[in-house]
Amino acid sequence: MAEETVEQRPRTKVCSWNEWDPLKHVIVGVATGTMVQAPEPAMQRNWPQYGFPYPTYGPLPKEMEEKANEQLDQFAALLEKRGIRVDRPTPLDFSQRVQTPDWVQDSMFGCMPPRDLLLTVGPEILEATMSQRSRWFEYLCYRPLLEQYFKEDPEFIWSAAPKPRLTDESYYSKTFWLDFERLSEEEQIEKHTYRKVWNLTEKEPLFDAADVGRFGKDLFVQRSTVTNAAGISWLRRHFPNHRIHEVTFREGAPMHIDATFVPLRPGLALSNRKRVSLEPELKELFKKNDWEIVECAPPARDKKPPLCYCSVWLSMNVLVLDPKTVCVEASETAQMEQLDKLGFEVIPVPFWDVAPFGGGLHCATADVYREGTLEDYFPKQIPGF
User: Of these residues, 192, 245, 256, 362, which one is catalytic?
Assistant: First the structure.
């Protein structure tokens, strides 16, 4: 079969304002080569029960990788059958040692979760800073795609946040996570969450794209273990025509908003039944603008799979295809039933084997194009929020 030419493909258009307009073009990640990262100030893995006691590191087992890629490929095929264009990143050799003039890092991570790195706001795709040295070069996996979009869409705005230096001054302690793990969850919340102080200092702007929830003109950005106040300030200045709301939830080690607070369609959002917002203004803003916030269903599992840093709340890490259609991990029957009662066509997608490689259905994707325009879904604002 002859290779499809640029002229034969539908014209590339980059634009996505929210998480629910009809999805037409998306990037789906790849599990190949994903690593248990070498220790660094931003992160230390300690999984002795699975053969990776601190400070060991290395590739995730090949059989796990094969199962994850099989599920990712099946998911991509499902989306394509529904008329959605799917692109895939180009993996690097993530086992290699990388360095800058400031540091040397003994491994990289992977390219399964493009949502962590790429933030699409209207016609712009913004490369996030990232706060882990092992993920500093991850943007290279997506550069072939971004270069292609730049050539094919004359309106595409390709941006990159300032690459952080990630010196030791960007972190409070080189052993933060080993010390953190000795605390109970309540101690973590009391000591860190209520103070909004985890491992990152305010030396430089830091944020992951997956800490941003897109609601049209309003962007909700979670302060977390990978997103600091300086990062949120940078986003405010970069998107002056949007309203940026900083949010924090009652969670010991927050990382990415899409397993905590998820928009489903105009007027409806899904919240984590365990992680309550620490900002009362969030609930007030939604109520004032006639939005309903529903608690997610209980997750199907009570523990994570081996070698996984994500939580069981990937149960609510759904991908909305349009305001009436949503993809949910196939074993999350309670979540599927809840969404069905809320009027959605629910598409079950086997995806649990992907979790150790960086997340769920939303994590594994990054929007390129959704139909729709920029809308103001919160015309009645709360002063100071």
Answer: 256
Q: How far apart are CA 183 and CA 105, in angstroms?
A: 27
Taking a C-beta distance cutoff of 8 angstroms, is the pair 339, 84 a contact? no
Longest dimension (CA), the chain: 61
Calpha distance 1→133 (Å, rounded): 42
Let me know if 93 is a catalytic residue. Answer: no
Residues 6+ apart with CB under 8 A from 268: 291, 292, 294, 342
- Residue of 106, 153, 208, 211 marked catalytic: 208
The whole-angstrom separation of Cα 245 and Cα 235 is 10
CATH number of 23-370: 3.75.10.10
Backbone angles phi, psi at 42, to 5 degrees: -80, -15
Helix (H, G, I), strand (E, B) or coil at 74: helix
Instruction: Break the chain into its structural domains and give their ranges.
Output: 23-370
Q: What pTM was estimated for this model as a whole? A: 0.96
Are 252 and 189 a contacting pair, CB within 8 Å? yes
Over residues 73-121, the pLDDT tens digits come to 999 999 999 999 999 999 999 999 999 999 999 999 999 999 999 999 9
Q: Let me know if 168 is a catalytic residue.
A: no
Asked about 208 being catalytic, the answer comes back as yes
Asked if 249 and 260 count as a contact pair (C-beta separation under 8 A), the reply is yes
